[in-house]
């Protein structure tokens, strides 16, 4: 179906009446008084009908009007507008002999055509939503074809479907399942620092404890320290067995603090360093172990 304006239909009807309404030739039109006059050519319209002594007077079409056929009309056809609101743009400008040629804008497709197969109305392509992929992109004559993503795939922008990330293959753990619009969420397994602290603490305590045992001095007798000899070896401490110091010290240490004997118990002297270590490692800490190591002086 030809899509023309009301004015164009009127002008064309009037033209056919003038041309074919009488007994005039094919290159003539019939005037209002029944006289046959020569037609004006394309791009021209009648300014003045012919007379018995003069031919038809023609004038060219003005700007934004055209005439693409020989005619006996007095008015040119208006040029066709290409409305972007209808999804169209001007591909070829109108001239005095040709109408405007419109085309479909990018991102639109035509849904209405004229008789000469020119588009006169277009609408935007459908946009695929997240969770879908574009199976077939839209053209100037067809809409976009969308398709849902299959299970195990996702699409955030409605363009392509992407497979969910394999967390195990990446050495990670899955913390959240994927959907049709979102990938699975993976995280690197965290290392707990709670397992690193106890060995460090135990090593430090064992080292200081060994140092404490090495500094303990007994002036008389034997002292039994409840401690596992095997554990001492594991800690790197030497076994405190059969260690015999000189029977008589050549000189009294400067930092020895005398301890008074009571009930005929041997008098034991400790250095300030011994007292300091003893305050850090009370004897109750030592009594928690199960075996006895004999230290002899």
How would you sum up this structure, described in words?
The protein has 297 residues and is of the alpha+beta class. Among the domains are: 24-78, Ribbon (Tumor Necrosis Factor Receptor, subunit A, domain 2), CATH 2.10.50.10; 80-124, Tumor Necrosis Factor Receptor, subunit A, domain 2; 126-189, Tumor Necrosis Factor Receptor, subunit A, domain 2 (Ribbon), CATH 2.10.50.10. Helices cover 18% and strands 24% of the residues. It has 5 helices and 20 strands. A two-stranded antiparallel ribbon has the order 1-2. A two-stranded antiparallel sheet has the order 3-4. Strands 5-6 form a two-stranded antiparallel ribbon. A hairpin with an 8-residue loop joins strand 11 and strand 12. The radius of gyration is 55 Å and the shape is rod-shaped. The chain starts with 5 loop residues before the first helix and ends with a strand. The model is unreliable at 192-197, 217-235, 238-246, 264-270 and 280-297 (pLDDT under 50). It comes from Esox lucius (Northern pike). TNFR-Cys repeats lie at residues 23-58, 60-102. Keywords: Disulfide bond, Membrane, Signal, Transmembrane, Transmembrane helix. Disulfide bonds join 37-50, 40-58, 61-76. Residues 1-21 form the signal peptide.
